[in-house]
Structures are given as C-alpha cells and as structure tokens.
Amino acid sequence: xxxxxxxxxxxxxxxxxxxxxxxxxxxxxxxxxxxxxxxxxxxxxxxxxxxxxxxxxxxxxxxxxxxxxxxxxxxxxxxxxxxxxxxxxxxxxxxxxxxxxxxxxxxxxxxxxxxxxxxxxxxxxxxxxxxxxxxxxxxxxxxxxxxxxxxxxxxxxxxxxxxxxxxxxxxxxxxxxxxxxxxxxxxxxxxxxxxxxxxxxxxxxxxxxxxxxxxxxxxxxxxxxxxxxxxxxxxxxxxxxxxxxxxxxxxxxxxxxxxxxxxxxxxxxxxxxxxxxxxxxxxxxxxxxxxxxxxxxxxxxxxxxxxxxxxxxxxxxxxxxxxxx
Length: 325
Fold this sequence. Notes:
This protein is of the alpha/beta class and 325 residues long. Helix content is 33%, strand content 23%. It has helices at 47-63, 78-85, 99-108, 144-153, 168-180, 192-201, 211-220, 278-286, 299-319; strands at residues 9-12, 17-20, 36-40, 67-71, 93-98, 120-136, 159-162, 185-188, 206-210, 223-229, 254-262, 268-269, 290-291. It is globular, with a radius of gyration of 21 Å. Mean pLDDT is 83; it is low at 1-28 and 268-272.
C-alpha cells in the first residue's frame, strides 16, 4: 500500500523542538497516541532529574499525552543513553543528555557503546549550569589570582573534592588546575553533597560545584565564592566575576543538558512554546539553572555544541590521565 507523507509534529523539550513524525499510513492517528518516555540517565533527585521533572508537565500539556520521566542511573549515564540510542526512532523515546554523557564519556571510556555525535537526532539545548569555584569560608584568598598564587605555594597541603571520578565537578576542577598550573590532590566522594559537607567541615579546601549546589551555601556564608567558571556572568550571581575576567582567558566549565532522539527520527523544527512558559522559567531560576536563549535552541546548535565539547574536553581529560575504565 502506498504510504503518503504526513507531517506530524512533536513539541519536545522545554520547548526546544517540534519533531516531524514522518510518513504514516493514511488511517494512522495523529501523533502522539500514547505516553512518551523521557529517559534521564541518572538517579532521581539530582540536578538533571529535577530539570526533567520541571519541564515534563508543560510538555504533557502541549502534547496531550503524558510524558513520563524514567531514571536509568548506572555507569555514568551509559545505560540510559544507550537505551535511547538503540530505541525505535518513532518519537516515543527521548533522552535528556548532558555534558557528561555526550562530551566527557568518549574520553573517559575506551569502549563506549554509543557515539554521542552520530547516534542521535539532536532536538535542542535546554539549560545550562555554570560551575563555580568555591572554597572554605576561611580560605586565605578572595580572587582567582590570589587563589592560584596560594595554591601554587601550598599545593602539598591542599585537597579538592568532587562528586566522583569523571564527574562534572571533578573534570571542571581538573581543567581549571591544569589551566592555572596547579597540582593538587583530588578527593572523590560519592556525590557532590558529601564533598560539600566535608569542605564546610574543613576536610578539603575547595571544589568546583554546580550552581544549584553552590548558591545556597554562598548565600548562607558557609563557603566562599572565588570565580564563576563561565565566559559571562550569571544573572543568579551577577556580582561574582568570571574566571575569564580574572585572568584565565576563555576558560569555561558548564554543565549543560539537551534533548536527543534516536538517529533516524524525522528532522526537527524549532518551537519555543514550553521554554517560554513563565512558570518553567521561574522554577528553573529558583533551582539555579539558566534556560538557554532562543538563538541556541535549535537542533543544529546542539549538534555543533556536542562536537565542540568533545573536541574541548577529550584532549584535556586524556592529558590529565583521567579514566573511568
């Protein structure tokens, strides 16, 4: 039977996309006809999981079908990402991918079962969380130049913490240390929370935290903010100077998240309907997360970002000798 091409559109991503569902039989119902699964490749309760749960109610309203968050948290996100990479490309399996799953993992794992630049149909970038260099509140430095000078002079007695080997908090500080010429012992924890608690308690001296984790502690005065690890200042902490402003030219370490579909899913067209929801924007702001502007929500931009981030982080990770295998 001849299969006429019909356009069906899926509004996905905190508004990031309208996806064409492609060719269907003449009697097929309009897409979607059943619930859609949004795979978060990390355990429930983390910052990326929270982002997914903020955007899904609005997505469900737009689609007229429930969007269900499924947490598949294992092996640095590899299990969940691989599931979507090999899912049927019909628009019912969506991935919330991150800088970790799509930029770090290719360098951290020798045999990654998916290709982040080739195995997906990118939908759009959703949100960004610039990392923040924070230190104990009694740390004897207030600016990045002072921090670097002190760390170089006292490297043997300093330690920095992270949420674990290969985590965003680890790699951001590893890259920062390399750029600044610092060699300090790394102490990995089982999550950012325990690392933060030990820093406040004095067991480690500094860490590179994501914005949601750092902001309450900075505002409460329990830690000291040294630099925002981004090229531009954050509206959440406008008074905090960036690493770039403080002498590390173009330095940037951002935890980003975006939506991806299996390769072969019909091409996407931009729509801003959900991202432009004030309720979504306000909630993201409360969480210390910045939604990206309309100029960076396209599938083309996300594809370019993935390729650029792989090229940026891969050599730095390998040069530092960091491996998760």
